[in-house]
Amino acid sequence: MSTTEEPTQGTTISVTEQAAEEAIALLEGESMDTDIAGLRLYVQQGGCAGLSYGMRFDNEPEEDDTIFEHHGLRVFVDPASMNYIEGSVLDYEGGLQGEGFHVENPNVVSECGCGESFRT
Description:
Blueprint: E1 14-15, H1 17-29, E2 38-45, E3 51-58, E4 66-70, E5 73-77, H2 79-85, E6 89-93, E7 100-104, E8 110-111, E9 117-119
Parallel strand pairs: 1-6, 2-5
Antiparallel strand pairs: 2-3, 3-9, 4-5, 6-7, 8-9
GO biological process, one term: iron-sulfur cluster assembly
GO molecular function: 2 iron, 2 sulfur cluster binding; 4 iron, 4 sulfur cluster binding; iron ion binding
Domain Core: 12-116
C-alpha cells in the first residue's frame, strides 16, 4: 500500500518532535532532499529475543511502503515490518547512557536484557 495520505485507523507510526529534528538534521547532513527522502524503520530477524529494529535513510520510498509524516520527517515502513511495529512511537533519547533513536512498541511482549531485540 503506497500512500502519502493518512493511513487507515490503527496502523500508525508516530515520531516525537525531538526524533524528527535529529533525523532531519542527519538527512540534511547527507545532502538528502527531505521532501522526498526519509527514514526507513524496519524489523529484521536477529538478536537474542528473535527480532530487532533497523533504521536507515532512503532517497525515496518503495512502491509498497506506508509513508508517515511527522514534524517534517517522512518515515517509510514496509508491509512485513508494519505487522510488528504498528502503533509504535519513534523517540530520540540523549544523556549519559548515550544518545540514539528508540522505538516504543506497544506490541512487544518481551525484550532481551540489553533492549536491542524483542518478541511480539
